[in-house]
Amino acid sequence: MATHQSEIQAHTGLIEFNGQIIEKMVSEHEVQAMVQRLADEIYRDYAGKKPLLVGILKGANLFVGDLARELGRGNPEIGRLPMPVEIDFLQVSSYAGDTSTGHVEKKMDISTDIKGRDVLLVEDIVDTGKTLTWIKKQLQERQPASLNVCVLVDKPERREVYFKPEYTGKSIPNKFVVGYGLDFNQEFRNLPFIGIVVGQA
Ligand code: IMP
Ligand code: MG
User: From the CA of 5, how far away is ligand 2's center (Å)?
Assistant: First the structure.
């Protein structure tokens, strides 16, 4: 027998999670299709190279894991071979709740020497653009061979500084989103899709 919750899910795209009602914006299926397409693009552009994926914690945790796995799997349908990558992480903080403080603070640095390496920063979302601009400037000083950015979702309307990622999963409207790594006060990161908190359950 269908539970109340699964009925809500089936009929409205609303999901009850953690005492809140979440409206789906990007389904799990669509997220995974975006990751596959991004892996195809990265494979094409980095052929013969071994890029260093640098995931920005905590939000990019799920994304960098899925992207690295996808690259490692290859895609026989389009003749894409499994591609080796290295993985590192850095952690910054710039948000309190849903408000950008505009002040970026480094909490944990990468442990890889990136001089001469092909570095691909992997981030969950680009919003004002301040965080990625700041991180890119810091890493550029270490003289990588290349330094590009891959984001899962982009909110171009919110830009305060010019910033254009080389790889973008999808542009989304100006709404605060959670899930697939994205949090609101550290919650909702383990939702398999991306959604909007619309109210209390
Ligand atoms: P930016 O410096 O404004 O581009 O901020 C980017 C960072 O803010 C991301 O790494 C996220 O951690 C956080 N952020 C921006 N928008 C959202 C959102 O809609 N949901 C959750 N986190 C967000
Ligand atoms: Mg983040």
Answer: 30
